[in-house]
Amino acid sequence: MYPKTRMRRLRRTEGLRRLSAETALGRDDFILPVFVLPGSDREDEVQAMPGVKRQSADVLVRRAGTLRCGAVLVFGVPDADQKDDVGSVALREDGLVPSAISLLKAERPDLTVISDVCLCAYTTHGHCGPLAGSGLPDNDSALEALSKMALAHAVAGADIVAPSAMMDGQVLAIREALDSAGHSHTAILSYAAKFASVFYGPFRDAAHSTPGAGGRQSYQLPPSNRREAVRDALLDEQEGADWLMVKPALPYLDVLAELRRETRLPIAAYQVSGEYVMLKRGAQDGLWDERDAVLESVLAIKRAGADAIITYYAEEIVRWLDN
Ligand code: PBG
């Protein structure tokens, strides 16, 4: 107790503060999401996300040469005329994402490539699976499509496939499809605790994946429910997931911290598009220094229990950590 005990003793100098730091950031902690366009020599800015681009695979591969973060997470952004009711182009082995994956691995075999497995960017209605008569995605037919999509990514050389559709049984279905096709070494990062969040808004502009009627509340988690989130995530562990994810990150640190206590699997946290835009806008408005704000946000996410952080700031963070 005061006056013998003085907490400020250990905070007196920068050296003392560093020595007692409980959490540290490293460049391998960060995963950069990238958006791939069809064709070649294409690049455009995502209007809703200043500083974020969509690029065709050839442009992306040139950029990958200098990337120093731990991994990339690849999202396909097909042209509008390539979409249909069931998202069939997503299942093709010669599709947009498989081609980008094999080009990336050829250029940078050392770069860990993770691929997003979800149909929402490929369906005309923007839902994460083919629709049933009810107008909601049909769980079991989505499983077949997601398994084929994941297998196409594995065949192309993805190190990790990351199902994000929130269909029940998707991890088990993908694990079985990969194993029976000889891809038992491909890992699964499950978007295990993915909430129905307004903070995905800017991403839907980036990936042209805004859902039509109904939103995603019939499959993504309700923001009010932590127990349900942990239960859902632990089911994915039982189904064979190698990594779990909590998404969004900052508004759901309680879920992350609780899941950290409940599982021994590594956990990724996704600092989503809306979180990115808030940090960016605040910096642009002079409310805070961009570097300080971003580093504090990812430190908090790591402290709460994340082993890796998916963030649109990954490249900048790695640069900032070096200086
Ligand atoms: C696709 C998917 C979404 C995000 C990642 N994968 C959007 C959604 O579910 O609507 C969001 C990522 C972000 O906001 O940065 N299912």
Order of helices and strands: HEEEHEHEHEHEHHEHEHHEH
Give the strand order of the largest sheet, numbering strands 1, 2, ... along the chain.
1-4-5-6-7-8-9-10
The quaternary state of the protein chains shown equals single chain
Estimate what percentage of residues fall within beta strands: 15-25%
Q: Which ligands appear in the coordinates?
A: ligand PBG
| Major sheet details | 8 strands, parallel, barrel
* First-to-last CA distance: 39 Å
Question: Which key phrases capture this entry?
Answer:
8-stranded parallel barrel; binds ligand PBG; 37% helix; alpha/beta; 323 residues
Please provide a brief summary of the model.
This protein has helices spanning 14-19, 57-64, 96-107, 139-156, 170-180, 201-207, 226-239, 253-262, 273-284, 290-303, 314-322; strands at residues 30-37, 43-45, 53-56, 71-76, 112-117, 160-163, 187-194, 243-247, 267-271, 308-311. The chain is an alpha/beta fold and 323 residues long. The longest helix is centred in the middle third of the chain and has 18 residues, at 139-156.
